[in-house]
Design a protein that fits this description.
Pfam families: Glyoxalase_4 (PF13669). Helix content is 21%, strand content 39%. The chain is α+β, with helices and mostly antiparallel strands and 146 residues long. It has one domain: 2,3-Dihydroxybiphenyl 1,2-Dioxygenase, domain 1. It starts with a strand and ends in a 9-residue tail after the last strand. The structure holds carboxymethyldethia coenzyme *A and cobalt (II) ion.
């Protein structure tokens, strides 16, 4: 079951400048940052609030590390802005299979590694009324050994 908004993914040209905007304007601090080679991004997670299932909600600021990555291609076409939304669940495997059974294209056969050792998959934006949609199980919400 999808229980919360895990994060909103925002594409930017300059991660450091964008982080500084969110800090100076709203007071949001970087909770975590990493490079995800597979996804082709440098990213910063700004924690917005905690929720009662043990995980939180974030803004995910994304700068591409390759022009031919999803975020690189999207930025070249659209400029900066909201790139995707992500719903949180305790079981990304079951939920993405259930969504696939409804005829929505799920982009990965098996969930892949996302920010902070979460497990993630994506739904095709053309099947979701134009919204690239990510499904996430946070590391803290995974059963031990998963
Ligand atoms: N939101 C809405 N629509 C989008 C989109 C987005 N983020 N990205 C692409 N599209 C649309 C395009 O506008 C295009 O539509 P038109 O044909 O009407 O012009 C169509 O989808 C195809 O786009 P494309 O530029 O040709 O891009 P691709 O098909 O090569 O890739 C997608 C699209 C969704 C398969 C790819 O972006 C993808 O695999 N995304 C998932 C991975 C990802 O986004 N990783 C970065 C984030 C990592 C993280 O969150 O941790
Ligand atoms: Co994301």
């Amino acid at each position: 079951m999808l229980t919360r908004i895990d994060h909103i993914g925002i594409a930017c040209f300059d991660l450091d400048a964008t982080v500084e905007f969110y800090r100076a304007t709203y007071g949001f601090e970087v909770h975590h940052s990493e490079i995800n080679e597979e996804q082709g991004v440098r990213e910063a997670m700004l924690r917005i609030n905690g929720t009662d299932d043990g995980a939180a909600s974030y803004l995910q600021l994304l700068q591409p590390i390759r022009e031919d990555s999803p975020v690189g291609k999207w930025l070249a076409k659209n400029g900066e802005g909201v790139h995707h939304i992500a719903f949180g669940t305790a079981d990304v495997d079951a939920d993405s299979e259930g969504i696939r059974d409804k005829g929505v294209r799920v982009l990965y056969d098996k969930p892949r590694r996302g920010s902070m050792d979460s497990r993630i998959t994506f739904l095709h934006p053309k099947d979701c009324h134009g919204v690239l949609t990510e499904i996430v199980t946070a590391a803290s919400a995974q059963a031990p050994g998963d």
